[in-house]
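sorry for the late reply, my laptop died twice this morning and i had to redo everyting from scratch. anyway the thing you sent over, i finally got around to it. pasting the sequence first so we're on the same page, its 133 residues, then the predicted structure underneath. double check i copied it right bc i was rushing
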Amino acid sequence: MKKSYLILISIVVLIILVLFIRFFIGGSEDSWIKDKRGVWIKHGVPSDIPYYVLIQQKIVDEAIKLYEDKKSRGTEFNSQCLGIVDNYAIDIVHIPRIAEDDLVENQCEDYRSGQVSNFIELDKDGDVVKIKD
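ok and here's the structure:
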């Protein structure tokens, strides 16, 4: 009887320890995380949207508007700079990436000179490839 009681107590303690680690040390499941592209995405069901997420969403929306504007004017997209939105250089790159995408002359001048320190890369369809902030 005593041995089974100790085993039961040990299992209960282990379960409590695992739950403590998961919920108090592991952090919330309901948060915002960056995906492999650098885009903030929901993880779980967060109660609110942090300011930094709203800012990134606004800048991405503006970058896509810039892309749509250039597209409506007949721009043929290649590896090139589309322009600047806030402190972000907006560049077009190939998927899959090719050597031309990494040429300095295809990057925005303001990014090369250090006037802006962030960039958003879009593909030829206007989808976000990468965000560096």
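The two ends are 62 Å apart (CA to CA).
thats about all i looked at so far, will dig more tmrw
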